[in-house]
Amino acid sequence: MRLLLPPSETKRDGGIDAALDLEQLSFASLTSIRTITTAAVAELALEPDDMMRALKLGPRQGNEVDRNRDVLQSPTMPAIDRYTGVLFDALDAPTLDDDARSYAADHVVVHSALFGLLGAMDPIPAYRLSHDSRLPAIRLKALWRDAIATELARESGVVLDLRSEAYVDLGPAPERAESAFVRVVSVDGSGRRRALNHFNKRAKGLFTRAVLTARPQIASVDELIEWAHAAGFSLTLGPERDAAGVRELELVA
């Protein structure tokens, strides 16, 4: 099983002394695209005003330009530790034990606008780039979509897509029985469902942490649903597949 997570705008500073090595990252077929994106980000950061506009940054976010300027030289840390924000705060990866982190290395993938697909333990620097950022002469969707979709199609077993729809658009997961997109909802007293935002991210983080802590062996979506119920989560098949034919699961927060 693969748990496919979105990234976060916010990142931890610091890391070990080793600088970014694109050859060390998972999904080696994406290395050539990563070379293009990291070089473009570092070059654009040499023009701070241009980068502020490209990233839609405010006047107090100049440190993000510095991060991007130094992206090829700054210290790295595992991707699952680098990201912060609601989902990753709920996941709280730095407090996971060694067994859980080893399981994460094999089962968790983070989808980055800069690096594409990352293994949970891939060493990356702090940076700033979003799915809708604009780089000179580069359209992120055109660059990433087919390459990421191809990589995800190679994944066997269950692919559980916990990304936002914006990142799904940068590289869709395969449309097959054991691939499912998770939508977090609330259910009121009359049974009406409502999609969530903040609690959406928190629920996904808590769910991912529970999986990493329990380390279940999951071979099908039905087995995943059964495990989730036993673990105290309300995870069910959605009322129907979406317009694109993608199977949906509903996680009630």
Mean pLDDT: 91
Q: Tally the helices: what do you get?
A: 10
Major sheet, described briefly? 8 strands, mixed
The class by helix and strand makeup works out as alpha/beta
Order of helices and strands: EHHHEHHHEEEHEHEEHHEE
Distance between the termini: 22 Å
Structural commentary:
This protein is an alpha/beta fold. It has one domain (2-252). The protein is 37% helix and 17% strand. The protein is built from ten helices and ten strands. The chain has helices at 31-44, 48-54, 62-69, 79-82, 86-91, 98-107, 140-153, 165-168, 198-214, 221-230; strands at 2-5, 77-78, 108-112, 116-119, 123-124, 159-161, 179-187, 193-195, 234-237, 247-252. Strands 1, 3, 4, 6, 7, 8, 9 and 10 form an eight-stranded mixed sheet that branches. Strands 2-5 form a two-stranded antiparallel sheet. β6, α8 (165-168) and β7 form a beta-alpha-beta unit. The model has no long low-confidence stretch (mean pLDDT 91).
